[in-house]
What we know:
With 150 residues, this protein is of the alpha+beta class. The chain has a single domain, classed as Sufe protein. Chain: A, CATH 3.90.1010.10. 41% of the residues lie in helices and 21% in strands. The protein has helices at 3-19, 67-80, 85-99, 125-140, and strands at 32-38, 43-52, 55-64, 145-148. It has a 4-stranded mixed beta sheet, covered by helices on one side. Strand 2 (43-52) and strand 3 (55-64) form a beta hairpin. Helix 1 crosses helix 2, helix 2 packs across helix 4 and helix 3 runs antiparallel to helix 4 (125-140). The radius of gyration is 14 Å and the shape is globular.
Amino acid sequence: MSNADLRDLYQEVIMDHNKKPRNFRDMTNANHLAHGNNPLCGDTLVVFLKLNGDVIEDVSFQGSGCAISVASASLMTEALKGKTLAEAETLYELVHKQMTGEEIDSSSLGKLAVLSGVKEFPARVKCATLSWHTLHAAMDSDHDISVSTE
Length: 150
Ligand code: ZN
């Protein structure tokens, strides 16, 4: 895919997921959750996880922030449902690497590969990684914890 195509697809996917965020809801039976905060931009969100053994049975988020933070969280919840914790950990590492500019094999990322478009907007990388850091904190903890990109 050319850089211009990636840029167009990036804008399109971000706009779509910002307008209609997937899994944007409270989860009363979540057994893991974490709060994330990106003070640079003012993005805040909560990631809810319902784990059944080591399988992510349900994942959702709530919060407010810029289009990129919302779209990234939306794409993340879509990608994670039904995955094991080990698979989620692998995705977390790949997404983090791709958004911070490391060369990776993006074929295993599916739709999440468009998030690499954020590299064109370095000031926005923390917006895009916020939900993933928050997810990671939620996976590691069985009580409510807070993470900040600062
Ligand atoms: Zn933001």
